[in-house]
Write a structure and sequence with these properties.
- It contains six helices and ten strands; from the N terminus they run E-H-E-E-H-E-E-H-E-E-H-H-E-H-E-E.
- The protein is of the alpha+beta class.
- The protein has a single domain, classed as Alpha-Beta Plaits (2-Layer Sandwich), CATH 3.30.70.20.
- The strands form four sheets. It has a four-stranded mixed sheet. It has a two-stranded antiparallel sheet with strand order 2-3. It has a two-stranded antiparallel sheet with strand order 4-5.
- The relative contact order is 0.23.
Length: 229
C-alpha cells in the first residue's frame, strides 16, 4: 500500500524503551545539531536505578517534546509565536518570540527552555530543518539501538507506521492525566519514571549526577530557578 499523494506528511515518533541502553547518543546529537546551551535540553535521557544489591536494575527514559495536539505551550504563549502545523509538529517562531517563559511554565514535560543568550524559547521540532532536506532528526539517525522510530503516519510503509501497527496494544504516552494529546508513543514505559520529568521548567541538569538516579524526583533543592524578566 502506497501513501496517499493527496495527504501531507504527518510526522510522529515512537520510542521503544526495550531497546534503549541509556547511551545518550540522542541527546548529544541533539545538542550539537541544534546548538543547545549548556544546562538546557531539547532531548533528555533519564536514568533510574532500582533494587538493592545483588538484585538491581537500571531503566532509561528519553524525553523530547511530545508534539501535543492540545499543546499547553501554544495556549500559554502571549505572542502567538507557537503553532502546530498540519504535519503534526509544534514549532516556535523565533521572529516573534519575546522569551517571557510562559510556554516553559505551561509545559508538563520539561520540554521547553528559554535560551539565556538569545532570550528566545526553544524546544524539539523533530529537526525540521533536516526534514526539509529529506533527512531524519539527528537523534533518530544517531541512535545505535533503533530505540527512536520516526516517520510519516500517513505512509503505511514508514518505520513509525509499521512499528505502531505491530505494537499498538503495548504503546502509551507520558503523563496521560495531563490530557494534552501527546503524540510521542512509548513502548515498555515504567510509570514511576514519569516522576523524574519536571513540570513548568526545563529538565534539571543535576539529574545527570549519579546520586540522583535512584530518586524519583524532578528537581533538587539547590537547582537554580529560571531567571525572571
Amino acid at each position: 500500500m502506497l501513501p496517499d499523494p493527496k495527504l501531507r506528511p504527518h510526522y510522529a515518533m515512537a520510542i521503544d524503551l526495550n531497546r534503549c541502553t541509556g547511551c545518550h547518543a540522542c541527546s548529544v546529537a541533539c545538542k550539537v545539531e541544534n546548538d543547545v546551551p549548556l544546562g538546557n535540553f531539547r532531548t533528555k535521557v533519564y536514568y533510574h536505578d532500582r533494587g538493592t544489591f545483588p538484585r538491581v536494575s537500571r531503566h532509561f527514559l528519553p524525553v523530547v517534546c511530545q508534539q501535543c495536539e492540545d499543546a499547553p505551550c501554544l495556549k500559554a504563549c502571549p505572542t502567538s509565536s507557537i503553532t502546530r502545523g498540519e504535519d503534526g509538529i509544534v514549532r516556535i517562531n523565533v521572529n516573534t518570540c519575546r522569551g517571557n517563559g510562559d510556554c516553559e511554565d505551561a509545559c508538563p514535560y520539561g520540554a521547553i527552555y528559554v535560551d539565556p543568550v538569545r532570550n528566545i524559547a526553544d524546544k524539539c521540532d523533530f529537526c525540521s530543518h533536516r526534514l526539509a532536506a529529506g533527512m531524519e532528526p539527528a537523534c533518530v539517525e544517531t541512535c545505535p539501538g533503533g530505540t527512536l522510530i520516526f516517520g510519516d503516519l500517513n505512509d503505511p510503509k514508514s518505520p513509525v507506521s509499521q512499528f505502531t501497527s505491530k505494537f499498538k496494544m503495548e504503546l502509551t504516552v507520558l503523563k496521560p492525566e495531563e490530557k494534552t494529546g501527546a503524540q510521542v508513543l512509548y513502548r515498555g514505559l515504567n510509570r514511576d519514571m514519569e516522576k523524574k520529568i519536571p513540570k513548568g521548567r526545563n529538565h534539571d541538569p543535576r539529574s545527570y549526577e549519579i546520586d540522583t538516579w535512584a530518586k524519583l524526583e524532578a528537581t533538587f533543592d539547590d537547582a537554580p530557578a529560571r531567571k525572571e524578566d
